[in-house]
# Entry
Amino acid sequence: MTDQEDKIQMARSKKHVVGRRGFLKGAAVSAAAGAATLVTELPGAQAQTVARPQAPVPSAAAVAREAGPAPVVDVRIIENPASDYMVDVLKALGIEYIASNPGSSFDGLQESIINYGKNTGPEWLTCLHEESSVAMAHGWAKIEGKPSLMPILHGVTGIQHASMAVYNAYVDRVPVLMATGFQLDGGITAHGATDMASIVRGYLKWDHQPTRLDQFSSSMLRAYRLAATPPMAPTMVLLDKHLEQAPLGPNRPALPKLTLPTIPSADIGSLRETAKLLVAAENPRINAGRLARTERGVVLLVELAELLQAPVASVGTNNRVSFPSRHPLAGAGTGQPDLILSLEAGGGSVPGVKTIAITAAEMLATSNYNVLPNSPQADLLIEADGEASLPALIEEVKRLITSDRRRVFQERGVKHADANRQVREQAIANARLGWDGSPISLARLAAELWPLIKNEDWSLVCPQDFISNWPNRLWNMDKLYRHTGGRGAEGMGYGAPAAVGAALANKKYGRLSINIQQDGDLNYAPGVLWTAAHHKIPLLTIMHNNRGYHAEVMFMQRAANLRNRDVDRAHIGTRLIEPNIDYAKMAQGYGMYGEGPIADPAQLVPALKRGLEHVKRGEPALIDVLTQPR
Amino acid sequence: MKRGLHRRVMFGFVVGAVAVFAVSASYAQVQPSQAGTAPAPNVPAGDATRGSALYLATGCWQCHGFAGATGSGAPLVISGLSASGFVNYLRNPRTRAMPLYSTKVMSDAAAADLYAYIKTFKRPSDAKDIPLLQQIINEK
# Structure
């Protein structure tokens, strides 16, 4: 700490620093003579004591000569700003955290949160990039299921910084409620614009710009509801700085009452038809995508699968957990299916196989047509939330199952379980490949980590596609929160901040959060490591450090091969080498425990244990592991 | 993987790989431009040391891992391909993921060197000889 910082700290602790109000008083005195509007008189300004000799005070005429005519200054003290009421609205909605990179367009609201609101419920999280703020909210919502960590963005610049993370959340169908401050007459006019939300409206479910305080309340309530109701998606409320800075009048608007609407479930006629087809099918298969929104969704899907003895395939490697990975019915089962029940999943149709799809995705009219599962090819398409539709579907299936059908189901269930066992054992056995290699194989990394966490209440808070899905193959993914799934739109820069957001949510439940972090992804906005350190968010980050954008390394290789020319230059523009990035030092620089790079498999477990010790003390830690490419 | 290669990989293998670009370039220079679909010739005996450099320089590691055992490509450590079968596969890959290596970008001699190197990969242990994997298999 420098001498100057020491002094600041001392002054802060003894409360001897010149207070905001005192500062304003001083400023007001000098400006009072020319003030056109003075809302509050400022008595006692002359009581300011000055301990040291002063220079002679220039006369008004002297000042006028030097500085020209005094400007018209609007000096006011507003002790009951509207932004205090806004804080009460946030509290009424249950907003627990604000994730924000500071900006002048919402300084009034920020001041209200930290002073009037006592910086608790919501608490302010200092973020170093707006993309990180929104990705943190994305990760948080995947654990909490609701948008109670709210990013606040600053004008046009904040929205543009955040836009990739907004798109990720949109495609991932995750509830993120955002606020964006703006000031059209602000000092930097380029930060304001009319209809700012239009920048990201293509991937927002709803946005609104309230013009009155009571409208702020209703807008926030609606934005929250719409974000958190399937099909879930980001929403945004734009906050005019003048609205938050204005004095709160005598008629304080009512606070919102948060009641979430019922979730649209399938109509009974469609469910009866679905149940009839499922019970009659000889080899039905269930494809589960983003089905489970809550732990109950996992329980319901297990019940349906066991009733039918139908296998449950998780479509894609980046899904959240909808079905336990070690359940005997997990996977594609055996034999060709004659009926597919697609639950919030894409994947198109299989020729000759009837498909029934239940999805809320089609209800979001702005859905990007290219994004699965927005366009499931189905013989029967039911526009409804999958999880909400399961209880009635289960009852209909139960009603139709006869003892004969139950016997048939049990026989096929044994076959599916046997197929599952074989696939699982082979998948685990494949981890032997490259077991002793250096750099360390991703299978070895996941396998060695498993015994260290399996007796904890753990949660994997990162995508798995670039780590070859090894945790899914080796670990027991038995609950929704065991894996938070992928990025949504596969936009890089999601991993680290989403992991921090999810870890913050997991912290409430005493869960151990694990992030196997791609090196390329971390370098988009590594400042979130500081946010984790500053706010003491326990999270073990293990670098999957393959020193490059490896998918692109392979793409470049293939491009050169396809053109039949130099095949030894794929590293140009794709690898992160010369110099190698020192992630341990990066972590240390941001104030957290960092160790590595670890390249020898024999050194891996001790390093992971050291990292876990820090995390169990409530801190983030990073272990840099040099890994095989995939 | 050979110990020398280990060191290169662990401490900046690309530095080594840059040095071998000249080697692969010289291969390319002496080969006429041909379509990649010609039948594989009788494959000469290769040099594993040159092959190890080629394995890095020409991108094999990208999909097959640094020891031919990991990644999105087929595990080379358990491949049963003969030398001519290997060269044929380079010229006529059966998957879209596997790039085609024509004789213009990799000569038969270079392919033979690669094959010689791949044959030095240590076969993996059986899963039941790795207690941790056996433990995971036995978990419910």
Remarks:
- Residues 3-138 of chain B form one domain.
- Residues 1-39 of chain B have pLDDT under 50 and may be disordered.
- The first helix of chain B runs from residue 3 to 10.
